[in-house]
Task: structure prediction
Amino acid sequence: KILPGMAAERPSSDMAAFRQEVKDAKHVLILSGAGVSAESGVPTFRGAGGYWRKWQAQQLATPEAFSENPSLVWEFYHHRREVMNSKHPNAAHKAIADYEERMTKEGKNVVVVTQNIDELHKKAGSKNIIELHGTLFKIRCTVCGEVCENRDSPICEALHGKGEPDPSNPDAAIPAAELPRCGKCNGLARPHVVWFGEGLDKDVTQSAAGHIDLCDLCLMVGTSSVVYPAAMYAPQVALRGVTVAEFNLESTPATDCFKYHFEGPAGTFLPQALA
Ligand code: BV8
Ligand code: ZN
Result:
């Protein structure tokens, strides 16, 4: 779809031209989705990786699913936490972190606004990160609201060895009393992530909005642009007439809004673009 005032021609794939814009930029917004972690072996939400047992993520990542069956939802998140024990940042995360380090030394600004909850940008050394949808490694009390970091593996005894993705695995049906509990009031704890139907933290959306309004270059890496409000951010930047470059294996509903589209693995193209 061509938004008003947008260049109507197809996005460019001229890396040399884009690299020149990277050199001139002073405030860079890097938006990322599951695709930036794909080459680290972290399953994306689409395609085969998008299933756990017989469900898709968006059927389990909801407050309704959690209140109906907290044990099943905790198995899902416990599994995703455990998976991260053996996953590491890939060349795309590293290129982004190295670029931020260089730009900071030159007094310039780079911020990563990620939809991912896997903390791989952090592990790669990125400092200026906004986690739009929270993180796998924080839990929040459903009673008193206490948020705390939790990297325990397993997060609790009852989940030890549970959460295997194969559909033949029976649901663990863990009693709520044995699920992760709040360290302060012993209330039932939940993953500190944003589920479908839940609003994003207002401080998070406000700081993201600041970068959307101030950036002079935007990269959109490994996202299918289907989940809102994150899917609106890059088109909003493009509407300001600021250059947006999309890095993805395929075109997305947002591709035509952007000045550049680099089709291929982020692990290949980001190091080229940001070197
Ligand atoms: C809200 C955390 C309101 C949890 C996530 C109908 C129309 C429009 C909107 C809606 C609608 N019905 C409902 C909505 C709203 C809903 C929404 O957008 N739904 C979608 C499905 C239509 N949004 C919400 O509910 C949001 N909240 O609107 O609240 C409100 C407001 C105020 C007050 C109260 C309520 C909350 C959404 C957040 C949900 N949480 N994650 C968890 O992870 O478990 S979303 C989750 O899915 C991710 O965080 C991410 O955002 C999304 C998946 O998208 P991607 O990251 O893009 O991943 P995906 O697999 O889809 O794509 C990967 C891409 O990478 C692909 O394009 C692929 O080609 C590419 N790729 C793969 N490999 C590579 C690669 N690219 C480069 N290199 C590679 N190697
Ligand atoms: Zn509590």
